[in-house]
Design a protein that fits this description.
The protein is about 40% helix and about 15% strand. By secondary structure, the chain is of the alpha/beta class. It is globular, with a radius of gyration of 19 Å.
């Protein structure tokens, strides 16, 4: 019995190393594509390649993607997606479904290679230490939303283990009102093979990126579940009201559990027609 358990342990370790080697190759191919091919591609083709690359990353880790609701139509009107935040995987889940630019803390820009890739694919970095950073980011976001861009923000300001939703900060929701854009709340949860919440993908506390990568690489297949909820029009709302409404919808979605109908996808092209 001990021999069998030891063999299983070694096989799991080998599988994890193979996954990480495949990840390294995948990231390298992505970096070369962004560096040499992206400058010659139009905005639409860049978006399609980015969604495909992110979908392939999920497949590499054996992650099944389950989607509820419809992705917001990208028809020229600005859209701001707000979601609860559990893991760095959240970014690739959303990128696998539609092209969007993320608002992220400036620390991510210093991640080896991943930070460079994020910057090259349009991530907006917020320097929290600067007192004027939020005001400057609001101006940038309002301009992009007015041009019809799709942006994504995690209003909790940090990650959790996925067991709760922290209060949403409304400071960066002002651009939705200024640009008369659409706010789209999205819930994210991770489930194990038995359909129960798993903390394997959670990236929080003092965990390093390498520790998180190894943990996910060693894990058996799990499911990422995303729900796109009805969009909220800014209308006459203030940013605090918008934050409270979005937070309430996402909390209700997560409390609802995984019993509602859904569809599984391995790759989803984004909808530009509505």
């Amino acid at each position: 019995m001990l021999r069998i358990e030891g063999l299983m342990f070694r096989l799991e370790g080998l599988r994890a190393w193979l996954r990480l080697l495949r990840l390294a190759w995948h990231v390298l191919v992505g970096a070369l594509t962004v560096a040499f091919l992206f400058p010659r591609l139009d905005h639409g083709e860049q978006g399609r390649r980015l969604t495909r690359w992110s979908a392939e990353m999920l497949q590499l880790f054996g992650i099944s993607l389950v989607v509820r609701g419809r992705t917001p139509p990208l028809r020229g009107k600005g859209v701001l997606i707000v979601a609860n935040h559990v893991s760095w995987l959240d970014i690739h889940l959303l990128h696998s479904l539609l092209p969007c630019r993320f608002v992220a803390k400036a620390d991510i820009a210093r991640w080896p290679l991943f930070g460079w890739l994020a910057a090259q694919t349009g991530t907006l970095f917020l320097v929290r230490e600067k007192r004027s950073a939020i005001r400057e980011m609001n101006v940038t976001m309002a301009s992009l939303l007015a041009e019809g861009e799709c942006l994504t923000l995690f209003p909790e300001g940090t990650t959790t283990s996925g067991d709760r939703v922290l209060p949403f900060r409304g400071a960066l929701l002002e651009p939705v009102i200024q640009a008369n854009a659409t706010l789209c709340p999205v819930s994210i949860r991770y489930l194990d093979g038995q359909g129960q919440r798993t903390e394997i993908p959670a990236y929080h506390g003092e965990m390093t990126l390498m520790e998180s990568l190894w943990r996910i690489a060693c894990a058996p297949p799990f499911t990422a579940q995303i729900e796109f909820m009805p969009a909220l029009a800014a209308g006459s709302c203030d940013r605090r009201s918008l934050a409270a409404r979005a937070e309430g919808q996402i909390r209700a979605s997560l409390e609802k559990g995984s019993s509602a109908g859904h569809s599984s996808v391995t790759f989803a092209a984004y909808d530009t027609t509505g």
